Amino acid sequence: MTETRVYLTAEQFLSGVGEFTPRWEDVPIPELGENCVIRMNELSPADSDRLTMHNLKGYDGEHELGSRTYGIALSASNERGDRLFKKPEHVVQLARRGGAKANLIMQRMHDALARLQALTDDTIEDAAKNSESDPN
Question: Which helix (H) or strand (E) covers residue 53, if one does?
């Protein structure tokens, strides 16, 4: 029996894929005020690729940054979607100045990003194993 296949045109494929519409989550920051929130956005495919490459390389250009810090820098925004941090290094400065309070806030922000990106401990561990097994 011969299997029937349907080959798509570029137009059919693109119309079926649609545009990227990010999901977001407002993260309460009660440490800074009763109604204070920071919006965490699902990463765009390009930003998701940047974060993956950052994780594989362990750095971003000349600046050493942790994965959590880099993800927060790419995701955090105001209500209009404007990024809060123009450079990832600004998140590092926040962490250094804020101590334990900033660390709690950053953990809450990272948890929201992980939910938006559907990251689990298992997917992170699998990615780490894959990068360790690939010498390139």
Answer: helix 45-57
Q: Which residues pair with 76 in a beta bridge?
A: 40
d(CA 9, CA 17): 12
Fill in the DSSP letter of residue 60: B
Which DSSP helix (H) or strand (E) runs through 73? helix 67-75
64 CA to centre of own chain: 17
Tokens in use for 131?
């990068």
Which tens digits make up the pLDDT trace of 40-54?
Answer: 998 888 888 888 887
> Under a CB-based contact definition with an 8 Å cutoff, are residues 25 and 40 in contact?
yes
DSSP class of 136: -
Query: What are the tokens at 23?
Result: 């999901």
